[in-house]
């Protein structure tokens, strides 16, 4: 039994997800379909990339991951299959794969845009992605799906900025608990720390954090904390509270870290 995951910005009242799952079940005998991430913010490929990047490696090798966020094809943004680390990813080359992978993936195939049903021209997930997934699920050669290429649409991920004794990061994701994930990795934080003390400034100088917690419960309920999550990224949270809603934090909000000698 193989696995196909779906990450989309569709919501529950649409028929799109149900139609795609039905098509996959018809084409892939015995398949297990998993919702990797649904209700992504509309067209937000950065959010989709964050979810897929941090979840796919927990699935069995050979799994197929369909990404339907901002999936319309363009002149420089074709539909592709990407193979990397033993997994297959099907989506649109709109910059999402460049956000997901630090290095160029192992293989990239531009899918043939052969849509025979005119009614499906605006539903590439059903017309193109599902047949491509079925092709791979049934152990057919990746090379038969289209033309091999060695380039991807380049979208440079936003990186934390370091100036003298200050590191400025951006909120890149807000989870269902309203915790804010920042684009500062654990490795980069500690390599910049160099044994110094620090202050994490949330919403300018209104809220200061001076230590990294190991658990959310390390602080009293309602207090703010900083933690490195399972993805190894800095996360600003509130114990038993909804931080981002209460402090009006959005994606792209600044989070500053100030380093100073002891």
| Helicity, as a percent range | 10-25%
Largest sheet: 9 strands, mixed
Q: What number of structural domains do the residues give?
A: 2
The CATH architecture category of the largest domain equals 3-Layer(aba) Sandwich
CATH class bucket of the largest domain = Alpha Beta
Write down the secondary-structure element order. Answer: EHEHEEEHEHEEEEHEEEEEHE
Alpha-carbon distance between the two ends: 57 Å
Please count the beta strands (DSSP E, at least 2 residues each): 16
Whole-angstrom Rg: 21 Å
Q: Report the uncertain regions.
A: none
**Structural class by helix and strand composition:** alpha+beta
The coarse silhouette is elongated
On the 0 to 100 scale, the average pLDDT is 92
């Amino acid at each position: 039994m193989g696995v196909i995951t779906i990450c989309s910005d569709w919501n529950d009242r649409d028929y799109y997800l149900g139609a795609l799952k039905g098509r996959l079940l018809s084409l892939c005998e015995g398949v297990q379909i998993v919702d990797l991430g649904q209700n992504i913010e509309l067209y937000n490929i950065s959010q989709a990339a964050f979810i897929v990047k941090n979840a796919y490696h927990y699935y069995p090798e050979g799994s197929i991951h369909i990404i339907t966020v901002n999936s319309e094809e363009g002149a420089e943004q074709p539909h592709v299959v990407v193979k990397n680390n033993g997994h297959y990813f099907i989506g649109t080359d709109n910059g999402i794969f460049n956000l997901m992978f630090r290095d160029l993936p192992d293989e990239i195939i531009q899918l043939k845009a052969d849509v025979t049903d005119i009614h499906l021209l605006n539903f590439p997930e059903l017309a193109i992605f599902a047949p491509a997934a079925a092709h791979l699920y049934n152990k057919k050669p990746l090379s038969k799906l289209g033309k091999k290429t060695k380039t991807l649409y380049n979208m440079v991920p936003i990186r934390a900025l370091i100036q003298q004794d200050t590191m400025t990061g951006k909120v890149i994701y807000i989870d269902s608990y309203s915790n804010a994930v920042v684009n500062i990795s654990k490795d980069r934080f500690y390599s910049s720390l160099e044994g110094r003390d620090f202050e994490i400034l949330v919403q300018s100088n209104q809220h200061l954090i001076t230590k990294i917690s190991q658990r959310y419960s390390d602080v009293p309920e309602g207090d703010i904390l900083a933690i490195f999550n399972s993805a190894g990224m800095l996360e600003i949270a509130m114990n038993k509270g909804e931080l981002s809603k209460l402090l009006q934090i959005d994606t792209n909000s600044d989070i500053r870290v100030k380093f100073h000698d002891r």
